[in-house]
Design brief:
five-stranded mixed beta sheet, about 300 residues, Fumarylacetoacetate hydrolase, domain 2, 7 helices, alpha+beta, about 15% helix, 2 domains, six-stranded mixed beta sheet, single chain
Length: about 300
Amino acid sequence: MSALFRLALPGGAVRLARGPTPEAPTELLGAGRDVDDLMADGGGTPGAALAAALAGPADGPVPDGHRLLAPIAGQEVWASGVTFERSRTARNEEAGPVDIYDRVYAAERPELFLKAAPGRARGPGEAIGIRADSGWDVPEPELALLADPAGRLVAYSVADDVSSRSIEGENPLYLPQAKIFTGSCAIGPALVPVGDAPPFGDLVVSLTITRDGGRLFRDEVPLSAMRRSPAELLGWLYQALDFPLGVALLTGTSIVPPAELTLRAGDLVEGAVPGIGSLVTPVHEVGSRQPRVLAENEVTTARGRPTEAVR
């Protein structure tokens, strides 16, 4: 096995590196290429550029003081919803007497939504966020699919789709606010080529939440319980969208902490998939409890005249 890492070196340079496992990088790869180059290379064989980079010559050992980054660059991050039976049940419980989650679970078309724009995904050890205006926040560890511009599956990683269940439960139309905010997405530690990974049906995702030095919650789920296949999810995502640099697509989760559990600032979250990696991130609070209301003199038209302040 060989895994691809993306690093920030002590001097600030960003470099690719490889390691024999997805736990730690050992060797730098040649300078001048990033994940965008490897994903955009749409040769005849899926993942050919990634495989060539991992098999090519090293450029020395990884220096001390490096920092792991999310192993994506210009790729958007999308996510899938209600791909497990347990997820459907939990979403119905939080939403009340509606049947939209039953309907999407059974429908031909899956739920797909934008999770993070390029540059917004956090990497290993970087803090994930929980909204200050939310009362119920959960991590959702998931398998991430990395696909090339043709929609072909190239590699796997581990991801966390941090979510506000209270905001989404209030109204399903609030999904973007429940899913997209500062620190709501983390990916890492590495990209593992599909050919080097265990078979998809053998993969297991786990979640561990630590608080004040003690284990607060742990659960795991086999990906064999997923209703939809990676090829099906990618096929729907690419049906009317193009991704010149490829895309990261999260496959959904069925790990649902109990209703009385919500993340707090200072918690430590670990999402793990044996053979793909372990993603560990601390938690901090983001945003404010009330929206900022602009003073009247702060809101102007393009001509500089005051306009009515936001109420």
